[in-house]
Amino acid sequence: MGGYGIGGTTVFSSRTGSRARVGFLDETRGLCIILMVLYHGLFNVVFLFGWDFTLTNDTQVLHALWHMPAMRFAQPFVAGIFIFISGIACRYSRSNLKRGGIVLALGLCITAVMLYFMPEQAIYFGILHFMGSAMIIFALLNRALDKITPGLGFLICAVLFALTMNIPNGFFGFSGVWTLSIPVGWTEINWLIPLGFAVAGADHFPLLPWLFLYIAGSYLGVAFVRRDMPDFFYRNRSRFLAATGRKTIYIYILHQPVLFGLMYGIDFLFSR
């Protein structure tokens, strides 16, 4: 089975004897990274640069947009899709261990840079830290995970994801049905940040619950590898989104420096 780069999704086609892209996965990843860039851009202009414009009724448009109820769910929803698709894509990798090490190292580098230049905005366990860790964990547990049938594995992961998704709210389980409170002292233990019990900023993607979503994707990835999915998923519909989806890792690393550079430049020009 052929492989792919950090941001790609390649399938070996027995019919053509060449490597072909999985169009739906590339395009969805491309859309997700574009939405993530827009989300971070809006955060920057509202909270870091303080830009806005006012309508005739004195409404600050960008602040109002940021505080819309839907925005509370935008980041976890888009990131969740990205994580799930990355779980599917891990089935095509030649070495999840190597890829995971590279991605985790990039995440740690970003943490170090932000601690130096913007300590108040430092990311301690963001999406890159999570993705790198998830790839490594999957690589180490791959054989054990494959002893479970894909359908059952997907179901188990879905249940575990649901049981742990309220950890940021201080409990396991389902609100109003069954809950188990998390000890208050755990939120003050820094080494529990990767697990999610201790919270570290808004851009925080801990292993719990997100690892279960990633592994659920890996079980669905079995069907993709076997080409059991409808042909719709393997076709390309948007060259732009597909190309963007193949470069997600680079876009994620570079988008904030580029946004900051543009915004600082604009701020400098208009403040003169």
Principal-axis shape equals globular
Number of helices: 9
Tally of distinct domains: 1
Radius of gyration using CA atoms only: 20 Å
The strands making up the biggest β-sheet line up spatially as 1-2
Query: Could you describe the largest sheet, including whether it forms a barrel?
Result: 2 strands, antiparallel
Beta strand %: 5-15%
Give the topology string: H per helix, E per strand.
EEHHHHHHEEHHH
Low-pLDDT runs of 5+ residues are 1-19
Mean pLDDT: 87
Which secondary-structure class do the elements indicate? mainly alpha
First-last Cα distance: 58 Å
- The count of β-strands is 4
How helical, in percent, are the residues? 55-70%
What would your notes on this structure say?
This protein is mainly alpha-helical. It has one domain. It has 9 helices and 4 strands. A two-stranded antiparallel sheet has the order 1-2. A two-stranded antiparallel ribbon has the order 3-4. A hairpin with a 3-residue loop joins β3 and β4. α1 packs parallel to α9 and α4 packs antiparallel against α5.
